[in-house]
Amino acid sequence: MACPHLEQLKAGCGLENYETIYNSFVLPSVLPDPTYQQAFVSCFDCENFNNDRLMACMHCIYFGCYEQHYSLHGSSKIHCIFVEIPSGNVFCMICEDFIYDAEVDEIIKKCDEFSRRQYVIWKPTAYECKLLKEHCKRVKVDPTTSIGMKGIINLGNTCFMNCIIQAFLHTPMLRDYFFTDKHICFAKTSTECLFCLMSKIYQRYYAEGDSTTLCLHDILFLVWKHDINLCGNNQKDAHEFFISARNLLHKVSSPPIHSQGSFNNIIDSIFHGKLQSDVVCQNCLNISTKIDPLWEISLDIPEPPSEGLLECLYHFTRPEPLGSDGKINCSACNSYQEGTKQLTFKLLPLIIVIQLKRFEQVKFKYQKKCTYVPFPIDIDMYPFLSGVRNNIEKKNLYKYSSYVQSNDHGDYRYSLYAVVVHKGTLSGGHYVAFIRRTNNKWFNCNDLLVIPVEIEEVLASEGYLLFYHKTVLPYE
Fold first, then answer.
1. b/e for 156-189, b at 16 or more Cβ within 10 A?
2. Which residues belong to any copy of the UBP-type domain (predicted)?
């Protein structure tokens, strides 16, 4: 729904003021080009230089700090429409929300060279080639740098989206793919392609010298269009958003059905695995095997509460009696017999996403399970593979988590890089994400606030979604 206050402003004086503000204060920050000279201003009231978060009035010439003075100006002058600098987002004080407007979007597209430079192939100079040859070893990331860590604006109960996007932005293989210029857009327009929208976010997120926060209104709007269950301003489930966004990335990464040639879908390569289901007849021990796609692992939280993630995986892959009410039609016995069903991992993906089922329905009412489930930084998935699981006793699970597994059977070690946590209750909860930037450096991403944390705080959290990446990648 359009904002009536912005419509009133447009009817009176148009959007010329917005174009001036965007060209002078927003565009230079996202387009580091000497052609554009960025103007620096401070709050007109406290003279505090704060170009990272200033609000520019669209009714008059006024700049105010976000913390206090812009709202005082709006109240006293009855000016309600502001532009956030340096993001360029339009904010209405009366609606208390950021606004999407098609005419504003057209101004951005007209002015912003960024979209046309979306995939600029880097061609190193002779001097840069010389430096690359001299320094071929991996460069150490400075722990104090802000590159690769940014806050994301909460658009109104969108913390669920912010956490998942933070996890996507730090998924190693996905991040590397975005920077290789290999994406082929099959959508009608780039605004209909989540990959194209994400590519802009990636470039801004990892741009040196760009200290602006991120606003994901275009991504939220696109996901809304494809998943009606995620529409609205109330709190949504982070796991549901992950599934919807991943499916949409998969869709726009796949060519039309009748396209010629072979295409490697990056989402398949990263997130897709295979789950084996074995149903065993208890009368003749005949085994019926079925292979299903594996995209994520949803684990029950068994009792007692002290059991950790390895025990949850052991519980998930155990043989489960189907009971007398779930008899199977055995093809060998040619009759209905009692049986057992067991799930194991036939093929593990490069990225394992584990959901701990904290939300359950009891007597037509949903409730949250706040049980603390210990989870490791490094995990070996070898004991849960098809053909291996039934040879591993529960008491021997932890010897595989010691990170010293032999390579005789391949390497199935994974490392934790993101944790999504739900705090509070179902009616008043909030999502935050713990993100690993380097091996030993973790950050708490709470919407706009991004602060470093110790690993002990991460491991002590009530994890809801756990993201693990394969430690050793296969050469293909």
1. eebbbbbbbbbbbbbbeebeebbeeeebebbeee
2. 1-118
Contacts of 243 (CB under 8 A, 6+ apart): 295, 296
Q: Which two tokens stand for residue 463?
A: 């994890």
Q: Is the pLDDT of residue 94 over 50?
A: yes
The pLDDT of residue 54:
84
Q: At what angle do helices 194-205 and 217-226 cross, to 10 degrees?
A: 160
The distance from CA 391 to its chain's CA centroid, rounded to whole angstroms, is: 36
Beta strand spans in 26-95 (E): 54-57, 63-65, 81-85, 90-92
Between CA 314 and CA 291 the distance in angstroms is 19
Categorize the per-residue pLDDT at 81 as very low, low, confident or very high, splitting at 50, 70 and 90.
very high
Q: Active-site residue numbers?
A: 159, 430
Q: What average pLDDT does this structure show over 208-217?
A: 76
Residues facing residue 355 across a β-bridge: 298, 465
Q: Average the pLDDT over 46-64 and give the result.
A: 78
Query: 126 vs 129, 132, 133, 455, CA distance in Å?
Result: 5, 10, 11, 42
203 to 206, 211, 292: CA distances (angstroms): 6, 12, 36
Alpha carbons within 13 A on the beta-carbon side of 27: 21
What torsion do the CA atoms of 79, 95, 114, 52 make, to the nearest 10 degrees?
A: 70
**Under 8 Å CB-to-CB from 384, ≥6 apart: which residues?**
313, 314, 316, 317, 344, 345
Q: Which residue matches tokens 């799930």?
A: 343
pLDDT at 6 over 90: yes
> Could you tell me the pLDDT band of residue 142, with boundaries at 50, 70 and 90?
low
45: three-class secondary structure by DSSP: coil
Angle at 156 between CA 199 and CA 295, to 5 degrees: 50
Backbone angles phi, psi at 112, to 5 degrees: -85, 110
What does the pLDDT look like over 246-301, one tens digit per residue? Answer: 999 988 877 766 455 556 788 988 999 999 999 888 888 888 889 999 999 999 88
Q: Nearest 5°: phi and psi at 24?
A: -90, -35
